[in-house]
């Protein structure tokens, strides 16, 4: 990685921002994070990937060159709101053309909110092959609401890990007609900081009396994780880049794509080391005894007080006292939260089989299918037709207008939990039904102090209601972050204030050249028709009998 930092002023002193530049050459490398070597996607010849770091107000420029040779790629900056820069968000076919081998694409955006983030491929379910890494946006020195309450900071990533490459998994499991239950592929390994205990034991150096801020990112493709620290309690201060009132926790649960920050106070003495554990929820409901289904459920790290003392044994007995994030209160409450809801959009979510017995996923009975023209490019070029959802094709499009307070009612008709992530926004979580409590479209009163985050778990056979204000024109995906459900189609597309998109977003020439390099249209409707925008002849469609839930 080549990184440069051009200071415009001293950001740490609260002055003007900096320009932070990275050059990323994306290509194949060898790695063995669980002891089994395989090809993974690295950056600048290395894996694990670098942490992208910036300060609030900085301009981040990332030059991406695709050296994979056999796959297109792209990067999504997960949790970054991309105010005014929806074209930098990263989902292939949503806000850009995928970057073909040999091409270069520049991401250029401002980071406006401190917190814990990550970046990952949003092309072809690629990130389980290793194209994912953490990102931190720090407060200016005097603006951290918890400044002075911790002495040092650590970053942890947790993840599941597969030994087969993604194309093989998609072919043999995800889209296999013998997969009649639409079951996801189970990973054989789990990692902390991109290593299993078979390779390295992760250690966090602790000094008696000090306080530590720990950031955690779940970069998994499938598994949620419970994280806990033996004989140490957490004070949670941030979820998904939203500060919260300090809340004590013994254990926290992170679905794929969720992030937490918390403070831990060290013990007064350094007479022993203490284990911390990441327990992956592929063990359904944390059953005891653990079902024998052939994967490693736990990874152990150490709070290392004494380097001469042995690495602590895993904590094998533990009662489950998992923090309910629904009760976390945001430190900042936006002005709009006491406004009435303008639009309610129900979405029924399910998985099933199409006419040929191929697994699919459905939003209101239809799977998302990416189109020939990226959805954002259609919005930019559609003129007066931009508010007509028909022109966007089968991307499960929903149009919302400037300033509307919008409520999504997420009805999970499926037997499994689904973590839903919304690009471009934080949202209030007004309701989250208990597992198997049934779905409901009944009106919901949303507390002004409702939890705010960007990824929420929708429990099995239940309803979650989330709410946001349309104040960021762009094309934003709302999708399940169980990565294997994305190619199945468990995605909706929110086209927010399309006429403002036309007024404020200009697609860079370099981005258009990336489309041209692979003969992809970059104007017109979903099919690339520029004359009659409601004529979708040639657009991509799901199988005819896949329209069900």
Automatic annotation (TrEMBL):
<dbReference type="Pfam" id="PF00394">
    <property type="entry name" value="Cu-oxidase"/>
</dbReference>
<keyword id="KW-0732">Signal</keyword>
<feature type="region of interest" description="Disordered">
    <location>
        <begin position="530"/>
        <end position="549"/>
    </location>
</feature>
<keyword id="KW-0479">Metal-binding</keyword>
<dbReference type="InterPro" id="IPR002355">
    <property type="entry name" value="Cu_oxidase_Cu_BS"/>
</dbReference>
<dbReference type="InterPro" id="IPR044130">
    <property type="entry name" value="CuRO_2_Fet3-like"/>
</dbReference>
<protein>
    <submittedName>
        <fullName>Multicopper oxidase</fullName>
    </submittedName>
</protein>
<keyword id="KW-0560">Oxidoreductase</keyword>
<dbReference type="GO" id="GO:0033573">
    <property type="term" value="C:high-affinity iron permease complex"/>
</dbReference>
<dbReference type="InterPro" id="IPR008972">
    <property type="entry name" value="Cupredoxin"/>
</dbReference>
<dbReference type="InterPro" id="IPR001117">
    <property type="entry name" value="Cu-oxidase_2nd"/>
</dbReference>
<feature type="domain" description="Plastocyanin-like">
    <location>
        <begin position="152"/>
        <end position="290"/>
    </location>
</feature>
<feature type="signal peptide">
    <location>
        <begin position="1"/>
        <end position="17"/>
    </location>
</feature>
<comment type="similarity">
    <text>Belongs to the multicopper oxidase family.</text>
</comment>
<dbReference type="Pfam" id="PF07732">
    <property type="entry name" value="Cu-oxidase_3"/>
</dbReference>
<feature type="domain" description="Plastocyanin-like">
    <location>
        <begin position="27"/>
        <end position="140"/>
    </location>
</feature>
<feature type="domain" description="Plastocyanin-like">
    <location>
        <begin position="369"/>
        <end position="498"/>
    </location>
</feature>
<dbReference type="InterPro" id="IPR011707">
    <property type="entry name" value="Cu-oxidase-like_N"/>
</dbReference>
<dbReference type="InterPro" id="IPR045087">
    <property type="entry name" value="Cu-oxidase_fam"/>
</dbReference>
<dbReference type="InterPro" id="IPR033138">
    <property type="entry name" value="Cu_oxidase_CS"/>
</dbReference>
<dbReference type="InterPro" id="IPR011706">
    <property type="entry name" value="Cu-oxidase_C"/>
</dbReference>
<dbReference type="GO" id="GO:0033215">
    <property type="term" value="P:reductive iron assimilation"/>
</dbReference>
<dbReference type="GO" id="GO:0005507">
    <property type="term" value="F:copper ion binding"/>
</dbReference>
<keyword id="KW-0186">Copper</keyword>
<dbReference type="GO" id="GO:0010106">
    <property type="term" value="P:cellular response to iron ion starvation"/>
</dbReference>
<dbReference type="GO" id="GO:0004322">
    <property type="term" value="F:ferroxidase activity"/>
</dbReference>
<dbReference type="Pfam" id="PF07731">
    <property type="entry name" value="Cu-oxidase_2"/>
</dbReference>
């Amino acid at each position: 990685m080549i990184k440069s930092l051009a200071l415009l002023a001293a950001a740490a002193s609260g002055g003007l921002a900096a320009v932070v530049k990275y050059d990323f050459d994306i290509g194949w490398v060898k790695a063995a994070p669980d002891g089994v070597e395989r090809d993974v996607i690295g950056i600048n010849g290395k894996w694990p990937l670098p942490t992208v770091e910036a300060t609030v107000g900085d301009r981040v420029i990332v030059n991406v060159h695709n050296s994979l040779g056999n796959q297109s790629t792209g990067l999504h900056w997960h949790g970054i709101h991309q105010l005014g820069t929806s074209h930098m968000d990263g989902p292939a076919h949503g806000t850009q053309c995928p970057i073909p081998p040999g091409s270069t694409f520049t991401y250029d955006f401002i980071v406006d909110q401190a917190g814990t983030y990550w970046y990952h491929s949003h092309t072809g379910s690629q990130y389980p092959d290793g194209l994912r890494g953490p990102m931190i946006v720090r407060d200016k020195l005097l603006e951290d609401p918890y400044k002075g309450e911790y002495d040092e900071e650590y970053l942890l990533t947790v993840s599941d890990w597969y030994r087969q490459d993604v194309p093989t998994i998609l072919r043999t499991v995800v889209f296999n007609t013998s997969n009649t239950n639409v079951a996801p592929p189970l990973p054989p390994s789990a990692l902390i900081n991109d290593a299993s205990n078979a390779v390295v034991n992760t250690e966090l150096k602790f000094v008696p009396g000090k306080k530590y801020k720990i950031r955690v990112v779940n970069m998994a493709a499938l598994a949620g994780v419970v994280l806990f620290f033996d004989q140490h309690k957490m004070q949670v201060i941030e979820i998904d880049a939203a500060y919260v009132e300090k809340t004590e926790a013994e254990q926290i649960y992170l679905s794929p794509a969720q992030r937490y920050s918390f403070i831990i106070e060290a013990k007064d003495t350094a007479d022993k080391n203490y284990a911390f554990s990441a327990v992956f929820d592929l063990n359904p409901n944390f059953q005891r005894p653990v079902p024998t289904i052939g994967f490693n459920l736990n990874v152990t790290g150490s709070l290392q007080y004494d380097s001469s003392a042995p690495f602590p044994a895993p904590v094998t007995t533990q009662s489950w006292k998992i923090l309910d994030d629904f009760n976390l209160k945001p430190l900042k409450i936006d002005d709009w939260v006491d406004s009435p809801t303008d639009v309610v959009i129900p979405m029924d979510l399910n998985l099933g089989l199409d006419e040929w017995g191929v697994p699919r996923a459905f939003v209101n009975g239809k799977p998302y299918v990416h189109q020939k023209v990226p959805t954002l490019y259609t919005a930019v070029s559609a003129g007066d037709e931009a508010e007509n959802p028909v022109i966007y094709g089968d991307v499960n499009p929903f149009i919302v207008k400037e300033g509307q307070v919008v409520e999504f009612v997420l009805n999970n008709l499926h037997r499994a939990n689904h973590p839903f992530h919304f690009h471009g926004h934080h949202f209030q979580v007004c309701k989250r039904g208990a597992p198997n409590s049934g779905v409901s479209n009944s009106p919901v009163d949303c507390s002004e102090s409702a939890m705010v985050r960007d990824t929420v778990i929708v429990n099995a056979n239940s309803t979650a209601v989330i709410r946001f204000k349309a104040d960021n024109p762009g094309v934003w995906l709302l999708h399940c972050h169980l990565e294997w459900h994305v190619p199945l189609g468990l995605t909706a597309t929110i086209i927010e204030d399309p006429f403002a998109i036309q007024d404020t977003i200009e697609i860079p020439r370099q981005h258009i050249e990336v489309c041209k390099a692979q003969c992809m249209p970059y104007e017109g409707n979903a099919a690339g028709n520029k004359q009659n925008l409601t004529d979708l002849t040639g657009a991509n469609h799901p199988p005819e009998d896949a329209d069900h839930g």
